[in-house]
Amino acid sequence: MQNTQLTNSPEQQQRNHWDWGFTPGAENWNGRLAMIGFLSAIIVELMSGQGFLHFWGLI
Predict the structure, then answer these.
(1) Please, are residues 57 and 51 in contact by the beta-carbon 8 Å criterion?
(2) Which of 10, 17, 42, 47 could anchor a disulfide with 25, C-beta 3.0 to 4.6 Å?
(3) Helices (H) and strands (E) in the chain, counts
């Protein structure tokens, strides 16, 4: 029978670590925050019936 334990290599541990610059961890966090922002904009548009820029009075 195979050993099915998950091992955390140093590369996997660094993917969630926050560092400044173009590092894998920073890029992962950048993507996550962009997804949250995009989802928030969609929710604002659905709830208000206006576009995001109209909602904030920028257009």
Answers:
(1) no
(2) 17
(3) 3, 0
